[in-house]
Amino acid sequence: MWRRLRSALRRLRGSPAAFLGGGGRLPAAMERAVVRCVPSEPKLSLRFVLPDGSAKHMQRDQAEPLGRALARIATNAAKGHAKAAKKSKKARAEGGPAGEAAAAAPAVRLFSRDGEAVAEEVPNAAAWQDGAVLQIGEARYRVERNPPALTELQLPRSLLAGFPVCPKVSAEFAAPQHCLFRWYREQRPAAGGGAAGDGGPAWVEAAAAERVFTPSNALVGLRLKLRCTPGDGAQRYGPPREVESSGPVEAGPGACTFDSRHLYTKKVCGEGSIRAVSYNILADTYAQTEFSRSVLYPYCAPYALELDYRQNLLKKELAGYSADLICLQEVDKSVFVDSLAPALDAFGLEGLFRIKEKQHEGLATFYRRDKFSLLSQHDIAFSEALLSDPLHKELCDKLAEYPLVQEKVLQRSSVLQVSVLQSTTDPSRKICVANTHLYWHPKGGNIRLIQIAVALSHIKHVTCDLYPSIPVIFCGDFNSTPSSGTYSFINSGGIAEDHEDWVSNGEEERCNMPLSHSFKLLSACGEPAYTNYVGGFHGCLDYIFIDKNALEVEQVIPLPSHEEVTTHQALPSVSHPSDHIALICDLKWK
């Protein structure tokens, strides 16, 4: 192919201006010189194929005069010509036709789009513009500066019929929403069992050109292939890449606990409303232990605890809620980066991640891009904030009187994720979205009280000092039932120093202090019988608290029925990916 292209190029004569012709259109036969030039990097890269067929990849200083780069190209071209001459000499010795004698370096010049030669003293960064023409001897190359390029294209390892397949797409000078996607399926072997051909599997186009593909039951047993062409939204496209699934589509689990909930959330809610979701999704780092398999979840089929299987269910569940805000807890960092962020991005959601201190999991907040933009983030680690932020000095001083409790509080890795969002349609509407996962131990009520006091003080600082009077949505796994001191404190605005939770872990860890806050918060989903249902425990631990002065509840999406939750004894199960249940509600501005 390259030989034919070069032959065509050699037949073309005339100046680059004539070559460009009317309207600046370039002949299809012109080869490419791809330039990557990023302002934050000191060097630019240049890739092209010399007339002798050798591929070149050069790195040049952006500030270097163009003349030096062109001289280097000429030297490389001369070396290539010399190699060709040696082959030619060998051919003569063997009685073949004589080749050309070794020649001096060819003339190398760069022409702008309008056909003017670019001066050799112009810096490389300014010289190598998109649409310019590089001439090496008689060969000409169209310069493509920062063309769209894929840096990563991956398919999930596990594919289930009826569940969306969301590829991970990373690109440079491009955006996934502007890329072109084509899905293919393997062709089933003929009835006689013969192969589709000697060249490997035959592929048949399987779906419309969409970023997300949901395989049907008819594709069970077949592998998938994705062809992606990167685009930048300005009608520029880069070279496509293909990726094949590592295994075939497998049968799905049938009915899932969230199917009936999706009937309420088929569409994104309207302007002025916000659909919020809070969900502890069960970190893989906790699900994949021998203790989990044998003690915590012995009733759950081992394959249903596998990350790839649970991710299939989780992505379908979350996508089907058509949410505007999603606050997740127990999110493995790798799950966020490789699975959830790419998948939810395809459904119009932008993700933010905050890892716990000294852990592999943390919190994730997603918001719908066409409804909200991110103004700022104000995440904290409770232990660090308590020690270093003057905002918490009074609480820190009180806590110092109880060294055993203080030590436990400071050892905890819990964090608070706080994001300030602004409505894309009404910039006067801003909202503070907080997300947390409090200390888990059943006897840690006193620790949780300290953590929530720090959280509410910090949120008050954001909503009163930084962004006066903006409302709050506070989601999370609070590890606190409605009868706990933590829930009572959030709900009522205060807690007495003699509350029983101050001695939740016995007299030696007694910690008596009155606490108060000024928010008027309401549990938007009420007090369900349970949001966590495992073999040895069930109870309500998760909440979506809202600022009742500014927001009101439009509807609460019903939780799965008790029969659905207990179909496989408890959670997680083959039809539910976590040991918690998502809370979902539609809110509206007052």
Automatic annotation (TrEMBL):
**BP-aspect Gene Ontology terms:** mRNA processing; nuclear-transcribed mRNA catabolic process, deadenylation-dependent decay
For this UniProt record, the keywords arranged alphabetically read as follows: Exonuclease, Hydrolase, Magnesium, Metal-binding, Mitochondrion, mRNA processing, Nuclease, Phosphoprotein, Transit peptide
Note down the stretches annotated as region Disordered.
78-99
What region holds the 2',5'-phosphodiesterase 12-like N-terminal domain?
147-250
Where is coiled-coil annotated? none
Cell compartments where the protein resides:
Mitochondrion matrix
- What does UniProt give as GO cellular component? mitochondrial matrix
The biased composition feature labelled Basic residues covers 80-90
Q: Which cofactor does it need?
A: Mg(2+)
* Family, as annotated: Belongs to the CCR4/nocturin family.
Please identify the protein, giving its name as recorded: 2',5'-phosphodiesterase 12
Species of provenance = Eudyptes chrysocome
